[in-house]
Amino acid sequence: MNDVTLYISLEQSTAVNSRKVCVGDIAKLFCRNVDIAKEAANIKLFTFNNSKKAQQVITALKIIEEISINIKDIHIENIGDAETIVYYKNIPSEERMVARLKTIMLIIFAFLGTGYSIMSYNGDVGSRELLEQLYTLFTGNDASGNPRGLTLGIIMYCIGLCIGMITFFNHGINQKDTDDPTPLQVQMRLYEQNVNQSIIIDSERNKETIDVD
């Protein structure tokens, strides 16, 4: 079996639902010998405690060591990250409902807050006065004499503002116009990478990382 190679690939972070963590739960495995890949996937690495939420950093070297102990005469290659963060969450259904309600409330507050901010901005820059001047410029009539026309201009301004925001963030009604990530998605991915890197560094400094001796 010396010519048998097992490839493992780790991502920077992964989530599990079981306290017992095996190799196959956090790593992608490939081997021409399917039985060896299945055996390696079932190797136990560690177990979380009874807490509802926890995280643990483990290195690729430790995973390779555990596989080598259980499966002899095999060559192992890691083509992924050098370490990974394993997140464990076991949230009861009651708490999930509360979390969903909190999410709905947060969406409502964000919507109202955004609307208030936009109205405050329009008030500060004098958007209504500008629309009145534009109405007089294009029609030659006083805006105060035709409130319906001014109202139509305000409605069109609101529609244009909405379309502009959707276009800027690269989103359509049901799907994105292109496959490119939005500016918000890019920032969220960068934030996630920075958080994961900080967790890995802190775990190594506190000597909490599961690594080879």
Describe this entry's structure for a reader.
There is one protein chain. The protein has a three-stranded mixed β-sheet. Strands 2-8-6 form a three-stranded mixed β-sheet. Strands 3-5 form a two-stranded antiparallel ribbon. Among the domains are: 86 residues, eubacterium ventriosum atcc domain (eubacterium ventriosum atcc fold, Sandwich), CATH 2.60.480; 60 residues. It is elongated and about 90 Å long. It is an alpha/beta fold. It has seven helices and eight strands.
- For the largest beta sheet, what order do the strands appear in spatially? 4-1-7
Write the CATH homologous superfamily of the domain at 5-90.
eubacterium ventriosum atcc domain
CATH fold annotation of the domain at 5-90: eubacterium ventriosum atcc fold
The top-level CATH class of the domain at 5-90 is Mainly Beta
TL;DR?
The chain is 54% helix and 18% strand. It has helices at 23-26, 34-41, 60-70, 93-125, 127-139, 147-168, 183-205, and strands at residues 5-10, 13-16, 20-22, 27-30, 44-47, 53-59, 75-78, 83-89.
Descriptors:
213 residues; alpha/beta; eubacterium ventriosum atcc fold; 3-stranded mixed beta sheet; 7 helices
Produce the secondary structure layout.
Layout: E1 5-10, E2 13-16, E3 20-22, H1 23-26, E4 27-30, H2 34-41, E5 44-47, E6 53-59, H3 60-70, E7 75-78, E8 83-89, H4 93-125, H5 127-139, H6 147-168, H7 183-205
Parallel strand pairs: 1-7, 2-8
Antiparallel strand pairs: 1-4, 3-5, 6-8
Helix pairs in contact: 5-6
